[in-house]
Amino acid sequence: MDDDRLARTFVELADTLVDDFDVVEFLHKLVDRCMELLDVSATGLLLGDSCDRLRVMAASADNIHLLELFQLQNHDGPCLDCYRTGAPVSHPDLTRATDRWPLFAPAATKSGFRTVHALPMRLRAQVIGALNLFHTEAHALAPEVTQIGQALADVATIGLIQERALHQHDILVDQLQTALNSRVLVEHANGVLAERHGTDPGQAFTLLRTYARNHNQRLTELATAVIDGTTTIEILPSTPATGPSQ
Fold first, then answer.
1. Which helix (DSSP H) or strand (DSSP E) does residue 194 occupy?
2. Which residues are registered as beta bridge partners of 4?
3. CA atoms in the 13 A half-sphere facing the CB of 53
4. Is residue 236 included in any domain, yes or no?
5. CA–CA gap between residue 221 and residue 80 (Å, rounded)
6. Which residues of 62-75 are buried (b: 16+ CB within 10 A; e: fewer)?
7. Structural domain contains residue 102
8. What is the pTM of this model?
9. List of E strands, 32-190
C-alpha cells in the first residue's frame, strides 16, 4: 500500500471546510479511494435519511449499486446489520451465509462476490451510514485492510459533520437529507445524458463528473443545468469511455 497516497487521502477526506464543498462528489471520492487503496473488488456506500432509512449514495460499479438496492428492498444484508448495531459485520464466504442472509447471500454470489465486510460510518454512538467492501475471492479480508477501511469511514464521517459544524442531531439529519436530495438530481441528470448519447448510466456519470471538474462546477449545480437544458454536455474524443460508476 502506498503510504504517501494513504496520507494524502486522509487529508483530502478531512478537508471539507471549503466554499465549493459537494457532498455527492465527496462520497464518490471516498468510494474511489477505497478502490485505489484497499485490496477489494468493489465498494458501496449508504447513508441514513431523515426517517432513519438507508439509501445508496455511491458505488464502484452498477452491479454493486443494484446489489445494495436489493438488500435494502428486501431488508436482508450486512449493511443493514452494520447500520443497526454500529459495529462491523463480515463474512468470509457468502456461499455459506444463506442462514444469516437468505436473500442477500445468493444474490451477492450470483453477482460474483464471495466476501463482504460492512463498516459503520459513525462518530461515537451516532451511526450515519455504512461503507461496504466486497471481494470476488472467498477469504476474510486482511485485518489491516478493514482497519484502514474503518479509518477512512471514520474520517469521512467526521468530515461530513464538521462541514456544517453539526453538534445537534436535527442539523445532521438536515445535512444528510440535502445529500440525498442532491443524489436524486444527479441520477436524473444521468438519465438525461444516457438517453441523449445512447450510453449506459456509468458512462453518463463519468461524463457528468469530468465536465464538472473541467469547468469548476459543483456536481449538483451541473446536474440541475443538464436537466433544465441550460447546459449541454457533448462527448469529446478525449472523454474516457468508461470510468467510476455510481
1. helix 169-197
2. none
3. 9
4. no
5. 31
6. ebbbebbebbbeee
7. yes
8. 0.70
9. 42-48, 54-59, 89-91, 115-123, 126-135
DSSP state, residue 22 = -
DSSP 53: -
Q: Which amino acid would we find at residue 84? A: R
- Which amino acid is located at 140 in the chain? A
Tens of pLDDT along 193-233?
Answer: 888 888 888 888 898 989 998 999 888 889 989 998 888 88
Dist CA 134 CA 112 (whole Å) = 10
Name the residue range of residue 115's domain: 3-166
**Residue 46 maps to a domain:** yes
Task: Report pLDDT digits (tens) over 133-186.
Answer: 999 998 878 888 889 999 999 999 888 777 655 445 555 677 677 788 888 888
- What pLDDT was estimated at residue 81? 97
Place of cell 461524463: 207
* Overall domain count for the chain: 1
* pLDDT value, residue 236: 57
Alpha-carbon span 38 to 40, nearest angstrom: 6
Closest CA to 116 of 244, 61, 130: 130
Of 163, 165, 171, 246, which Cα lies nearest the Cα of 208? 246
Q: Is residue 199 part of a domain?
A: no
Q: Distances from the Cα of 152 to the Cαs of 16, 90, 146, 165, in angstroms?
A: 14, 17, 10, 20
Question: CA angle, 58 as apex, 51 and 28 as ends, to 5°?
Answer: 125
- Assign residue 138 the CATH number of its domain: 3.30.450.40
Q: Is the separation of the CB atoms in 176 and 128 below 8 Å?
A: yes
Q: Which residue has the cell 432509512?
A: 53
CA distance 145 to 39: 7
Alpha-carbon distances of 207 from 155, 229, 234, 235, rounded to whole Å: 28, 16, 9, 7
